[in-house]
């Protein structure tokens, strides 16, 4: 039974067939546009290497001419890669970002996932106030992190957010363009510091890539356990102290159930090395389409955490508040048997 003390800040109309069609289509387009270009690039590199070997084996006057043509091909290819790298690392114009966020298709994602925002603590800071929004857990695909900053409905709750995303995502064209559209920030110290110095608010998932692998069916983890990797993740608290800005704890119920994964030897190690998800994941019908979760995707927001006397004290306060909102809301969500484990 709904708790009258839980304040719903946002909820969406039921999902329609049109919404499902839009989510499936755009999910497939994003997957293809992110994976196909790197594959074609690798194939072309292999082709260039093989061509060079064939030229080296040749004899006669034509060899120098063909070698010159090969060098020109390499120069053009390298120039194209450099141009793409410079473009994708640049910040998109404000006009493009506004256009991207206003696309109607994002509303279909919110309805498809039955997204809602529930407040369990006192009033949030005003949308114009600088803050750090923490989205927990990361999930196999960070849908909840991206959706926290994707439309004007979310903006009315906590203001404009710049999502902190792994730098490796920039090499995947479709995903990189999406991150530019939502004004993402590269997850390195220099870029995050620059964003905060400029007065921006940021949305971050502290657990990052490694948290993806801390879920069932990983050995030692029960199906009734939800894992949050926070014990050694204090960077966002240090930023809170450095810039004197509050942290908003937010646990997203359903985020860990949007996709499934297949474990294979070395996947976790490789993912940590390259700071990207290098494992096999799937959703509905075995496609890169998120599952619709019973209960929906619910952002549960707790009491705002302000910088304390020191980082350790503030971090402990944050973890306690996260546990509190999980325990208080899990029954209403239908997760009575679940427990939140902070590692």
UniProtKB/TrEMBL annotation:
List the record's Gene Ontology CC terms alphabetically.
endoplasmic reticulum membrane
Transmembrane ranges, per UniProt, are: 20-46
Assigned EC number: 2.3.1.-
According to its UniProt record, where is this protein located?
A: Endoplasmic reticulum membrane
Superkingdom of this protein's organism: Eukaryota
InterPro entries from the UniProt entry: DAGAT
Q: Which UniProt keywords apply?
A: Acyltransferase, Endoplasmic reticulum, Lipid biosynthesis, Lipid metabolism, Membrane, Transferase, Transmembrane, Transmembrane helix
Per its UniProt record, what Pfam families does this chain match? DAGAT (PF03982)
Molecular function per GO: diacylglycerol O-acyltransferase activity
Topology with respect to the bilayer = Multi-pass membrane protein
A biological process (GO) of this protein is: triglyceride biosynthetic process
Catalytic EC class: transferase
The answer, when asked if Transmembrane is one of the entry's keywords, is yes
Q: Which residues form a coiled coil?
A: none
**Which family is annotated?**
Belongs to the diacylglycerol acyltransferase family.
Q: What is this protein called?
A: Acyltransferase
User: Which organism is the protein's source?
Assistant: Triparma laevis f. longispina
